[in-house]
Write a structure and sequence with these properties.
By secondary structure, this protein is α/β, with parallel strands linked by helices. It contains 24 helices and 13 strands. The longest helix has 21 residues. Bound molecules: glucose-6-phosphate.
Length: 546
């Protein structure tokens, strides 16, 4: 497969960029009162307004040609059909099967995976109902009050984000906590408030070998045993979510209390699998199913909507437009919704671990930029922290603004404030403030002389900073599922354009290997391996200070 930059359409896009990069969006809006209607799409739970982008009528058709020349639709179908498109690990990529609500079979090597998917969902339904209703009791016969999910990366970020988003202000029978960091402070802090007789631990690990998770799981077990002395009770207080039955048994968890998933589910795509058990416990299995329904809705939209009205395709191509033609190095995710507080963290992993690569799926060095640095925080808080750089700094920061139309809070006057800021910021980032406008403001305030020039220089905002406005009808399990799946497919679209395997993560290996060499040195107090002078100096320093 040729690299994208070898395609004629790439040169056409470069030429188009040269023609339009000097245009200001303020002028494009002035010239076209229909710009919003022409550059927005309503679909399902969403309105996507992408009119505040540096595009003209020609841009999207050219980007769509790029997508077609990269055979996006064929790649998409290969993913949904269970082909082993994760070529470097020889695996299919089927998180979409986990939320396949259509009754359609999905085959991997001739075997339909759907019966096994449905069987695990049924087990999750039964188990979560028993725990939530107080039917599953702890070792002393008391009902479970707290659940601790022990996992990291893909076995943490997705469920944490969803639990926070869906719990909202509603009363729930269980409190769900997350322990990910192996720094002992985290588990100590979480456990300090809990009663071992009413706490259930979920050890969530695809491999069941992850150092951080296994260390935390052992500390949790020690804590439980120190308090109760009841080995047999472990069965009532520890369950596992994994693909590795042997390791679960070796840890001492009865495999009858193991919730299975499969190698064709990538960690950062796994919240739809049994890794979502903490979600089902936190908000109930019905809500978990609605989350799956929403993601399935987005899968169907991605598969069937024409590319020009296809939400993940539009978002993916606009991202490529900025990364490859404007040289943008970053992309911000700015939810105007407290409940989506952890969405930027989840999307950061999803995007950066999937497309943060410089070798393509065929093993060639890429000669073009790939995944941007994805970051973000709730927009309202960001306004008081880092928006200064987006408005007046020297970097181009394309951003997604996400808000709900209908609030979850009863304090609706708060929601109006949130929305007014959402709208004002995207307007400000698009329009900016000209020198004349700044001058007029200062004159009206009675400023004159030297001060006015000084002030005006600081008060000019260049504007022309691209944003997408994504309005979710209301944050529900369904719309949240669709929202997450939207970003999964956006990442997929970009991976296809850049010819990447978005489903491996070889770049996390080296650090893990080196840590496993250094740990024995810290433990024994002896330097045994050759290191560079800096690393050796640091190890000697740490050992000498013990
Ligand atoms: C995700 C990554 C990574 C993974 C964690 C936890 O795609 O592979 O974040 O989820 O390293 O792995 P385990 O679930 O195997 O403990």
């Amino acid at each position: 497969m040729p690299q994208p930059i070898e395609l004629p359409i790439w040169a056409e896009l470069q030429a188009h960029h040269q023609r339009i990069s000097g245009l200001h969006m303020r002028d494009l809006f002035d010239a076209d009162p229909q710009r919003f209607e022409r550059f927005s799409v309503e679909a399902g739970d969403f309105l996507l307004d992408y009119s505040k982008n540096r595009i003209t009528d020609e841009t999207l058709p050219l980007l769509l040609r790029l997508a077609r020349d990269r055979r996006l639709e064929a790649w998409r179908d290969r993913m949904f059909d269970g082909e082993r498109i994760n070529n470097t690990e020889g695996r299919a990529v089927l998180h979409t099967a986990l939320r396949n609500r259509s009754g359609r079979p999905v085959f991997v090597d001739g075997e339909d995976v759907m019966p096994a998917v449905r069987a695990v969902l049924q087990r999750m339904r039964d188990f979560s109902a028993r725990v939530r209703e107080g039917d599953w009791t702890g070792c002393s016969g008391q009902r479970i009050r707290d659940v601790v999910n022990i996992g990291i990366g893909g076995s943490d970020l997705g469920p944490l984000m969803v639990c926070h988003a869906l719990a909202g202000c509603d009363e729930q029978p269980l409190r769900v906590h997350f322990v990910s960091n192996v720094d002992g402070c985290m588990i100590e802090q979480v456990l300090s408030d809990l009663n071992p007789e009413t706490t259930l631990f979920i050890v969530a690990s695809k491999t069941f070998t992850t150092q951080e998770t296994m260390t935390n799981a052992h500390s949790a077990r020690d804590w439980y045993l120190r308090a109760t002395g009841d080995e047999a009770g472990i069965a009532r207080h520890f369950v596992a979510v994994s693909t590795n039955r042997e390791a679960v048994a070796a840890f001492g968890i009865d495999t009858a209390h193991m919730f299975e998933f499969w190698e064709w589910v990538g960690g950062r795509y796994s919240l739809w699998s049994a890794i979502g058990l903490s979600i089902a416990l936190a908000v109930g299995f019905d809500a978990f199913e609605q989350l799956l329904d929403g993601a399935h809705w987005m899968d169907e939209h991605f598969r069937h909507a024409p590319l020009e009205r296809n939400l993940p395709v539009i978002l993916g191509l606009l991202g490529v437009w900025y990364v490859n033609f404007f040289g943008a190095e970053t992309h911000a995710i700015l939810p105007y919704d407290y409940l989506l507080q952890f969405l930027p963290n989840h999307l950061q992993q999803l995007d950066m671990e999937s497309n943060g690569k410089s070798v393509d799926r065929d093993g060639r060095a890429v000669g073009y930029a790939t995944g941007p640095i994805v970051w973000g925080a709730p927009g309202i808080n960001g306004q008081h922290a880092f928006y200064q750089l987006i408005h007046q700094g020297t970097h181009l920061v394309p951003a997604d603004f996400i808000a709900s139309r209908r609030p979850r809070t009863r304090l609706t006057h708060h929601h109006e404030i949130v929305l007014s800021n959402f709208l004002a910021q995207t307007e400000a980032l698009m329009r900016g403030r000209t020198r004349d406008e700044a001058l007029a403001l200062q004159r009206a305030a009675g400023v004159s002389g030297e001060v006015i020039e000084q002030r005006v220089a600081q008060m000019v905002f260049p504007g022309n900073n691209p944003t997408n406005s994504l309005i979710v009808e209301r944050l529900t399990p369904h719309s949240l599922g669709a929202l997450i799946a939207l970003y999964e497919h956006k990442v997929f679209v970009q991976g296809v354009i850049w010819n990447l395997n978005s489903f491996d993560q070889w770049g996390v290996e080296l650090g893990k290997q080196l840590a496993s060499r250094i740990l024995p040195e810290l433990r024994s107090g002896r330097l045994e391996q050759a290191h560079d002078a800096s690393t050796e100096g640091l190890i000697r320093y740490l050992l000498a200070k013990r």
